[in-house]
Amino acid sequence: METIRVLAAGSLRLVWPDILTAFAQLSAQPVTTAFGPAGLLRQRIELAESCDLFVSANVTHPQTLLDTGKALSVMIFSHNQLCLTMSQRLAQQQRTWIDLLSDPALQVATSTPISDPSGDYTWALFNHIEKNHPEAGKALKQRARALVGGADSLVVPEGELAAEWIIRQQLADIFIGYQSYALRLCNCDNIAVMEIPASYQIRANYAFAVCHPRAQLLASFLVSERAQSILEREGFIPLNR
């Protein structure tokens, strides 16, 4: 039986083993997975790296593969959104999220736009902030440091959550990243997560591209009720919400 070769967005790394365990109850087909920033993974596929299923944190990269004939189909299978991670000391100052982001004395870190969809979603958040707080979003684009998710980014130690590690290493005061990590981050000592109000939220659409027919069963499983419940348990937003 041929192995399914998956290239998947790094933000799925923690939930993916549970998804594959559940899939194994449906099929004996073996699966191997490599993780990374979705934009960089798409480039690897374009350079002819073997991939049967590409699982991205946005729709743009899978759609690009479909448009160029490197994928057979594309489908959204889940959603995510953004949040702020910071030290508990900073969170306890009882300042609003926008006040914290707008404070020029605080260093804001993000993922890398273009290479990593998380960075793209964060820049969309900055655009939204700019519409409601003139000059604030523009200033954030100038101040923010893209520390992870790029070809030459910092290497986060294995087993570490990027947001927690960045705050603990004092590389930034605030990290803007996916809310799917919030449950785990809230269990980290001296780390706090602050939600972004719904009126400012940016919805992250996760999509897969089937690049070879052998991956179709796994792709279909991702939109099944079983997989959706696993994703929701890990902080992702299911398709029906």
UniProtKB/TrEMBL annotation:
Example GO molecular function: molybdate ion binding
| Biological process annotations from GO | molybdate ion transport
Write the signal peptide boundaries. Answer: none
Q: Which InterPro entries match?
A: ModA/WtpA
Q: Which Gene3D superfamilies match?
A: Periplasmic binding protein-like II
Q: Which domain of life is it from?
A: Bacteria
Fetch the SUPFAM superfamilies from UniProt: Periplasmic binding protein-like II
Q: Please state what the protein is called.
A: Molybdenum ABC transporter substrate-binding protein
